[in-house]
């Protein structure tokens, strides 16, 4: 069974159980302050898990593409990837544990044909200190499913505390603020068995092996979150409407189905792997001289993962650059090129690997075909840029060596940071001259760099709304007035290119080729303040995409709000007939109910953001 068949089987399974199937949302989330990318299947659904009614009802399912930038350095083993697809299904106050557990057992064992004797599950052990009991209900439901196929469940079900089997947006129960929902979860694992020798080869070989350890023998293939509690001043109480949030790794299910712990052997990677084999003259597999976990296999995995992620990110409009999301696309491409060098690849190869992925995914993601040329062009341009950078780095290496007669670990790190030179390449240049590079020093500097990057990213990349406070909501509504005022003053070519909103100020990026004049800035501010003084009403409607376009709504229709399916939320500002509303814009919310709540609008600064994009910073007094 191919991965595309598994995905379709999952969609059909839940569609037959009255679920509305949602399209995958963009990898770039809108108005989410917690992350730069869509990093989980449930991320676009969060507002509805927290109580907002979904226009498509209470039963939903999808296959959501995801990207986790924090996993870049972990890629190279047999199971970590930065890009992946998460199969998801949700019950918003409809069915609960019994239906979900029965359906998941049926899907895994009957639909996919996985051997139930190789399945294990974990359940929440409870926490008597906070009044949340051991989840015996979930354990009993799993026991019944295993018993139905003649398996004694006492060796199949394991209880773990809140560090493993509890979900909330803020982590363990003690970290949850008052009013926050959360609940126990139940994870499902596939056992690859002792015959693969995964535990014995791992860093955990001297420790007991269990389903939740990290040796690689057991692979988590899905997690059922049962959100049923809300934190109060007095402790935890049941939610009025409990929800189900399931997320399952598509690629991991496929690996279980072929009973191979190496996720890079599933069919999704076949075409791309062949392209890399052609370019390098090497083969990927256990028959390689360096073994299944050696440097060649590591390089193959990095290249396969990074170029797949870059292909999908470019398709979602993220182009290589030195900042924001584009920084990660550039990093992915250049890291793939660097590891290609270790395999002996010298010519251009990124575009051909991307083309292989496009062919593989065209049935599920036809938009890749539409953007094939752009994807190939961007990858080729980045390869050419990086080649120039590497040539500069080589000259710098020679300068360093000529100056001191050696290249230190700190020198090697500076070459990596400034020119993208991998340590391995610096070591090869140094070894040719009879020198050794201090790897320990390089790794110390690299760890410092990672810590600084993580700290910087938390501040730099907090896009969208910082919170849902009254001040932030007022400024968010002001961006709609600002957007329309800019279109009136500068022209209909103006389109939003990004926003960042805190309780103190708004930052709004928009397309415009030239610096605004003082007169244009004042005119825009005057228009916004006029709408505020008129105390116009603000309301939203859930519309089909075609209807929203017909009524003149502006915004990003196809991807940003795909969590609503074929329907989108449009916010209207004004009290005139529909066609004459001042602002009609696609948005997820939240907003004030009347513009009079907002105060006095003031543009503090207008500046360049990037080529063809301007930025306004403004406040409300």
Would you kindly provide a written description of the structure presented here, covering whatever features stand out?
It is globular, with a radius of gyration of 26 Å. The chain starts with a helix and ends with a strand. It has 19 helices and 17 strands. The strands form 3 sheets. Strands 1, 2, 3, 4, 5, 6, 7, 8 and 9 form a 9-stranded mixed sheet that branches. The chain is of the alpha+beta class and 621 residues long. Mean pLDDT is 86; it is low at 455-463 and 558-563. A hairpin with a 4-residue loop joins β11 (496-501) and β12. 40% of the residues lie in helices and 20% in strands. α9 (295-315) runs antiparallel to α10. The chain has 4 domains: 3-257, BirA Bifunctional Protein, domain 2 (2-Layer Sandwich), CATH 3.30.930; 266-404, no CATH class; 405-457, no CATH class; 464-620, Threonyl-tRNA Synthetase, Chain A, domain 2, CATH 3.30.980.10. The chain has helices spanning 3-15, 46-49, 97-111, 136-148, 162-165, 198-201, 250-257, 270-280, 295-315, 324-342, 350-361, 367-370, 372-404, 409-419, 423-431, 439-460, 470-490, 518-533, 545-550; strands at 20-21, 59-67, 83-92, 119-124, 157-160, 166-168, 181-191, 218-232, 235-249, 464-465, 496-501, 506-511, 538-544, 567-573, 583-586, 601-610, 613-620.
Outline of this structure?
Helices cover 40% and strands 20% of the residues.
Topology:
Elements: H1 3-15, E1 20-21, H2 46-49, E2 59-67, E3 83-92, H3 97-111, E4 119-124, H4 136-148, E5 157-160, H5 162-165, E6 166-168, E7 181-191, H6 198-201, E8 218-232, E9 235-249, H7 250-257, H8 270-280, H9 295-315, H10 324-342, H11 350-361, H12 367-370, H13 372-404, H14 409-419, H15 423-431, H16 439-460, E10 464-465, H17 470-490, E11 496-501, E12 506-511, H18 518-533, E13 538-544, H19 545-550, E14 567-573, E15 583-586, E16 601-610, E17 613-620
Parallel strand pairs: 1-2, 4-5, 10-11
Antiparallel strand pairs: 2-3, 3-9, 4-7, 6-7, 7-8, 8-9, 11-12, 12-17, 13-14, 14-15, 16-17
Helix pairs in contact: 3-4, 8-11, 9-10, 9-11, 9-13, 10-13, 11-13, 13-14, 14-16, 17-18
